[in-house]
Amino acid sequence: MNVLVIGSGGREHALCWKLSQNPRVSRIIAAPGNGGTARVARNVVVKDGDIEGLMALVRDERIDLVVAGPEAPLVAGIADACARAGVPCFGPDAFAAQLEGSKAFAKTVMREAGVPTAPFEVFDDAEAAKTYARSHGAPLVVKADGLAAGKGVVVAKTVEEALAAIDDMMVAKHFGAAGGRVVLEDALAGEEASFLAFCDGERYAVLPSAQDHKAAYDGDEGPNTGGMGAYSPAPVLPRERWNQTAELCIAPILKRMAELGHPFKGVLYAGLMFTANGPMVLEYNVRFGDPECQPLLMRLDGDLLEIMLACAGGRLDPSMVRVRPETALCVVVAAPGYPGAYPKGMEISGLDEADAMAGVKVFQAGTKAGDGETVTSGGRVLGVTALGATLAEAKKRAYEAASMVHFDGCRFRRDIGDKGIARSK
Ligand code: AMP
Ligand code: GLY
């Protein structure tokens, strides 16, 4: 089996690592990959949104399974192109990928499917949006409809902030076409968690709950990032509530997408907020979360290749998704300045020593294999991930390993897992 993994983050290193454990996998190509994927796959420089380039790779390398890490290739139609070429793809078609690619689409499907979510309105006109914001009052959440690299959401505490966000998105076109349409929704309060399920268009198999840490600094302070750490399971969503939660936020979406003629295949990621009125869906992603993928795959005991083929082929058996009982925790080691501007090309030391620790895996994200050494090439550089019998033990081990790696100005949050530890007490 030849597998193509699209993307270049810690998530993609984890996907390549897990897929490489199946002896049926003879070759993995990562496009474009990073220093970590280079250890288990062959990196080929094709961008993740370049469907033609990716399909040329599929033909030239005789690929048997395409795995989309990020959303860009899915929104751009990689699954549709694979279907035309008769090659299995793990990930939804472009229509279904609108669950992530368009907030208005996602909210409308949620409403139609009866999924609990914040009340909202969709606007194509800035003046109409501002009139609504003034009459609604604050707090109010302003969301650019399209993909905006995680920066298209403003939780406005005042009406002035909401109006400024509407101007930024719809008038100044800060996010280009993505902001031509906005969703205005009620602000919710509560603890967040990520809940992911493998889907084959009809059936699903849930993964354990996880929790991301989006803010740059300890105590959830500072600007939002792609995610500074994650762990699984998340005590805010304990095992006894997984089935019920899936009935609430996964099953109705699968049913609705099938009714719309686009059965959802791949991994459906529900971003949940646990409010005083129960769980509400903030957003869907149509792919693994990064960094949630890293602890989730550390815990996955089933065979990822077989699960992905079964999802793509419409024959998922939930018993394939077995999970280790331990907790896994991932600490993201970032470049100085991230999520703002940051330097690149710093040499990384201690990688192999940390990786050799029992129960530890260092997933690489913004890295590049240089002449013998590995250097930084992005903002989120490493995802140091460890298993432990308890959340506290996983945390201790992950931080021990994180303290062994080094590059100039490297930085990580010190409080990954603390919300879960407090809740388990
Ligand atoms: P989204 O991309 O829709 O998940 O939004 C990104 C982040 O914005 C979420 O992880 C939340 O922290 C926050 N957010 C989104 N929607 C709401 C909401 N309705 N109320 C409060 N915070 C929200
Ligand atoms: N960690 C959040 C995301 O991947 O969207």
CATH class category label of the largest domain: Alpha Beta
CATH superfamily of the largest domain: ATP-grasp fold, B domain
- Which ligands occur here? adenosine monophosphate, glycine
Cα Rg:
21 Å
At CATH level 3, the topology of the largest domain is D-amino Acid Aminotransferase, Chain A, domain 1
Which strand order does the major sheet show? 3-2-1-4-5
Shape: globular
Q: Beta-sheet strand percentage? A: 25-35%
Structural class: alpha+beta
Second-tier CATH architecture of the largest domain:
2-Layer Sandwich
- Give the count of structural domains: 3
Can you put this structure into words, describing what you see?
- This protein has 3 domains: 92 residues, Rossmann fold, CATH 3.40.50.20; 56 residues, Dna Ligase, domain 1 (2-Layer Sandwich), CATH 3.30.1490; 234 residues, ATP-grasp fold, B domain (D-amino Acid Aminotransferase, Chain A, domain 1, 2-Layer Sandwich).
- The model has no long low-confidence stretch (mean pLDDT 96).
- α1 packs parallel to α12.
- The protein starts with a strand and ends with a helix.
- The radius of gyration is 21 Å and the shape is globular.
- The chain has 425 residues and is an alpha+beta fold.
- Bound molecules: adenosine monophosphate and glycine.
- Adenosine monophosphate (AMP) binds next to β7, β8 and β17.
Task: Write the SSE topology.
Layout lengths: L1 E6 L2 H10 L7 E6 L4 H4 L1 E2 L7 H10 L4 E4 L3 H4 L2 H8 L3 E2 L3 H8 L1 H11 L6 E4 L2 H11 L3 E5 L8 E4 L2 H13 L10 E5 L4 E10 L3 E3 L4 E2 L2 E3 L3 E4 L4 E4 L9 H8 L1 H9 L5 E11 L2 E8 L7 H7 L4 H10 L13 E8 L12 E2 L2 H5 L4 E5 L2 E3 L4 E3 L3 E9 L2 H12 L15 H7 L1
Parallel strand pairs: 1-2, 1-4, 2-3, 4-5
Antiparallel strand pairs: 6-9, 7-8, 7-9, 10-11, 10-16, 12-15, 13-14, 15-18, 16-17, 18-23, 19-22, 20-23, 21-22
Helix pairs in contact: 1-12, 6-7, 7-11, 8-9
Bound molecules: adenosine monophosphate (AMP) and glycine (GLY).
